[in-house]
Amino acid sequence: MTNSVIVVTTRDALLDAAYDAALAGDWSQVRMIDVARTAGVSRQTLYYEFGSKDALAEAVALREAARWMEGADAAVVGHEGTPAEAVAAGTLWTLEEAARNPLLKAVLTDDVGGLLPFLTTRAEALQAAAREHCAEHLSSHWPSLAASRVALVADTVTRLQFSHLVLPGGRPEQVAADIALLVSSLLGESA
C-alpha cells in the first residue's frame, strides 16, 4: 500500500480561499487581505501571484473550468459514436453539474458581487478554454473533420452551453439533444 501525498501549493491555497470567499457571498466585499490570511500567506504574496482581485477571480473561474472539462470528458467516455453523441453527453453532464455546483449558484445569485461578468461579458478566457478543449476533443477523435467545421462546432457548442448555464432553458436532456441535432447539422451528418 502506498501513501499518497497531496501537495498544496501557495497558488492552490489562495484559489481555495478565494473559492470559499466567493461561496460565502458578496464578492465585492471580499478583501484581498482576508483571502491571503485564510490561505496562510501575506497579502503581498497574493498580489505577487495574481496581481489583482479581478485576476484572482478569473484564476478561480479558470480552475473551475478545468475541473469542469475533466468531468465532461469523463461523461463523454462511451458516447463517442459520433461527434453529436459526444457533444450531447458532455452537454448533459455540464447542465446537470451546473444545477449542483455551489460556485455557479453563488455567481448567478450574487447580483452585486461582481462575479457574473466572468460568465458573461468578461467570459472570453473561460470560453476560449472551453472552445479549445472541445475542438481538441473533436479533432483527436474524428481527425477527418474539416478544421473549419471543428472550429464552428466548438464555438457554437461553447456559446450555447454558456448561455444555458447563465439562463437555463428546458430540461437538460432536451437541451443536450437539441445541441446534438445542431452539431449533426453543422457537420452535415444525418440525424
N-to-C SSE string, H for helix and E for strand: HHHHHHHHH
Beta-strand content bin: under 5%
User: Mean of the pLDDT scores?
Assistant: 89
Total of helices: 9
Profile the largest sheet: none
Poorly predicted runs are: none
Q: What Rg is obtained from the alpha carbons, in whole angstroms?
A: 18 Å
CATH superfamily: Tetracycline Repressor, domain 2
Number of domains: 1
Structural class: mainly alpha
| CATH architecture identity | Orthogonal Bundle
CATH class: Mainly Alpha
Q: What is the general shape?
A: elongated
Topology:
Blueprint: H1 10-24, H2 32-39, H3 43-50, H4 53-76, H5 83-100, H6 102-109, H7 124-141, H8 147-166, H9 172-186
Helix pairs in contact: 1-2, 1-4, 1-6, 2-3, 4-5, 4-7, 5-8, 5-9, 7-8, 8-9
Concise summary:
The protein is mainly α. The protein is 70% helix and 0% strand.
Task: Describe the protein.
The chain is mainly alpha-helical. It has a single domain (10-186), classed as Tetracycline Repressor, domain 2 (Orthogonal Bundle). 70% of the residues lie in helices and 0% in strands. Helix 1 (10-24) crosses helix 4 (53-76), helix 4 packs across helix 5 (83-100) and helix 4 runs parallel beside helix 7. The protein is elongated. The mean pLDDT is 89.
